[in-house]
Each structure stands twice: as C-alpha cells, then as structure tokens.
Amino acid sequence: LDTMINSIFVMSPTGEVLIEKHYRGYVGRSCCDTFWSEVQRSSHPQEVNPVMVTAKYYLIHVQRYGMYFIANVQREVAPLLVTEFLHRVVDVFRDYFNEVSEESIKENFITVYQLMDEMMDNGIPMTTEPNVLKTMIMPPTILGRVATSMGVGDQSNITTDLPEGMLSSIWWRKKGVKYTNNEVYLDIVEEIDCLIDTNGLMVSCDVSGEVLVNCKLSGMPDLCLSFTNPSIIDEVNFHPCVRLSRYERDKVMSFVPPDGKFKLASYSVNATGQSVVLPLYVKPQIHFSGQSGRVNVMVGPKSNLAGRTIEDVVITIPFAKSVQSTSLSVNHGTAHFDEASKCLRWEVGKVPKERTPCLSGGVTLAPGSEAPESGPTLMVDFKIVMFSASGLKIDSLSLTGEKYKPYKGVRFVTKAGRFQVRS
C-alpha cells in the first residue's frame, strides 16, 4: 500500500502543536510552521487549501472545533482517504471526551496517544469504530482522573484481550450484549445549504442528511429500515454494517447494529430545488445613501411548518469595514455589533407565533468613505425538530433474530448548513 500517512499533528486555534504522532519515521515540526504561515496569510481559516504541496511532502488537513488536524504524507495518496481518516479521529475524540478542545486534549494526553496508536498501524488506517475502540481502551472517567492525579491510579485503561468481535465477520458488535430495556433510537438530521437572492428567489439549494442511531439491544439483532420515498436519497455513504447488495436491490437498509451510538448513513438529497421547501423566510432591506444607511430585517416561519417551532435562530450580518457605528433595535431576542469585525449578530432564539421578529435602525459610515456598492450577505442559523426538509419519510423499522419487542423512537431534525440571504 502506497497510501501511507507518515505523521499526524494536532494544532490549537493559536498555532501551538498539541499532539504529534509519527507512524513511519520522524517528521520535524517545521512542516507545521509552513502550514501555520499559510493560515496567517489567508483572510479566513476556512480559505486555506485542504491539500498543500511542498517540495518534500503533502500536508492534508481538516479544521474542526477551531482546531487543525494535519496529516503529513510523502507519497501520492488518495486525499479523501486521508481527510476521512482525520474526520474519524475527531469523531472518536468527541465520543471519548464529549468535546474537542485544547483543554480536553491536554487533559487526556495519554488516552489520545493510545487511541492514535490503535487507529493507525504503520501509516495505514486500522480500527476507527468507536464501539470497538471502547472495548480496547476504556474512556476516561472523573474518578480515574482524580486517582491518577493523586498517584494512586495504577490500573491501566487498556484491556489485554482482543475484542471478541474482531475475529468474527461482524467485528463491529461484541457478543453477549444484555439490556433490561431493549430500545433503539433514530435521529435523522438534515442540513440545508442554500443561497437566496435579493428578490427572495432561490439561487441554489442542497440538502444533506445523516441517520444517527443509538442502539441498546440485547443479543445479535438484525434490523431493517425502510423508507416510503427512498428515491430522493442520493449519493449515500454507509456504515460497514449495512448490507450494500440488499440496499442496491430493494432500497432498504438492512444491518446488524453496533452497540451504542453510531452513524448508520450519510446522504445527499436528489433535489431539483422545487421539491425542497424552505421552512422560514428572511427579508433584508439594507440601503446606503451618503454617509448613512437604513437596515430592516424580518424573519418568520413559512406556512408549511404545520405549527412546528423554529429554534436557535441566529442571523449574522457582516457589514462593510467602512461602517463606523450602528443604532439598531430588535423587537425579539438580542443583537450585538462587534466593532472589530463589523459583524452584527442577532440572536432571535425561538421564533414566536404571535409577532414577526424584526431588526431595524440605521448605520453610520466613517467620514470620507464611499457607500458600499451592494448590501451584505446574511448568514442564517436555525433548528427545527420533527421537520424533514427533504420530505423523507420512514416506512418501518423491523427487528429479526431476537424474540423481544424493542421500544423504537424516531426523530427528524432540520438545521441550517450554509444558509445565505443576499440583501
């Protein structure tokens, strides 16, 4: 295999190297300096190229939770294999430590290195399934941390035995799982990436989704998930437990689930724009004349929501650098203008049914500066529970192979991805 990763580095939001793990010989930290100078040159961290080419090596990185996860590769490699592996590393850290931050990584240095040892061998990805890793490396506990800090924690968190499932064809599920209450929960989380022009018309719209499962079932259950309208699912990416041939034939997801939480599938929606109905409207009116400007933004639910509430609504307006001050008021939520970045953040929260949230007022430009040629593009964030943007519907979730009848719970959540409105 030529697709080998030499080293992995984890950098903090300030550019400090927190973790360095070498799989195929030592690679100096100087490659991180090359990467960091590129970050500082770009106006926004997200503008840094995911693949950087230098004379000696390639640097492939992902940025999540403000941190940078960088892989150093010295030969031609499939870049998506590397980015997928880095995302898996972040997901495992999140699963183990409940958050991915500078503090959580520093607090769990030993576990981080143990995980990185198990997840990759000689530069080739190995065990990336969190449920399998947990049978080998115990997640840290508060009691364990206290014991270690007092010097009495002599017990290792690594098991000496190989996980039972590793030698079977169903390596992702351990044997002899027992629960008093058998339950399985499904979360179908969809994100809308969308661009709306100044007339309120949709320029582009993409919906992507994930099927997240929390499985607490005894024994060796066999589940089958079927949809009423599977034709709208496009470009699907499955967990290894899903039987691919069965899905291609019958368009149902048949699988023996891992124990605990896992991502069953991620998909994009086969949408032609018209089939996706946006759950809310945002109407911005931002006009400049001379040294001042008027701002009026309204937000509200569309009639297709059937009484469901839109929550966690945040509208960000990145004003031009020539804006000196603002005098804006809101009739719902709170608005804060950041003087340094010239960004206005309006936290609407839950959209009320009895009145339309509105932001209005004026802005003043710096003396001598010209009025911006076009209005800013607003970024919108929101969440709606029990609403599916794509219109995907679950037909049934059936269980075979075990005698019990489990409790089944299904929840749809729609969130904003990159939701932009031009003004």
What is the gist of this entry?
The chain has 423 residues and is of the alpha+beta class.
Record keyword descriptors for this entry.
17% helix, five-stranded antiparallel beta sheet, nine-stranded mixed beta sheet, 423 residues, alpha+beta, 7 helices
Describe the structure.
With 423 residues, the chain is an alpha+beta fold. It is 17% helix and 42% strand. The protein contains seven helices and 23 strands. The strands form five sheets. Strands 11-13-9-8-23-21-16-19-18 form a nine-stranded mixed β-sheet, with no helix packed on it. Strands 2-1-5-4-3 form a five-stranded antiparallel β-sheet, with helices on both faces. The protein has a four-stranded antiparallel β-sheet with strand order 14-15-20-17, with no helix packed on it. The longest helix is centred in the N-terminal third of the chain and has 19 residues, at 79-97.
Question: Could you give the topology of this structure?
Answer:
Layout (H helix, E strand, L loop, with lengths): L6 E5 L5 E6 L7 H12 L9 E3 L4 E7 L2 E7 L5 H19 L4 H6 L1 H11 E2 L2 E2 L4 H7 L5 H8 L33 E14 L5 E15 L5 E6 L5 E6 L5 H7 L1 E4 L4 E10 L10 E10 L2 E10 L8 E9 L4 E8 L3 E5 L4 E7 L8 E8 L11 E9 L8 E7 L6 E16 L1
Parallel strand pairs: 8-23
Antiparallel strand pairs: 1-2, 1-5, 3-4, 4-5, 6-7, 8-9, 9-13, 10-12, 10-22, 11-13, 14-15, 15-20, 16-19, 16-21, 17-20, 18-19, 21-23
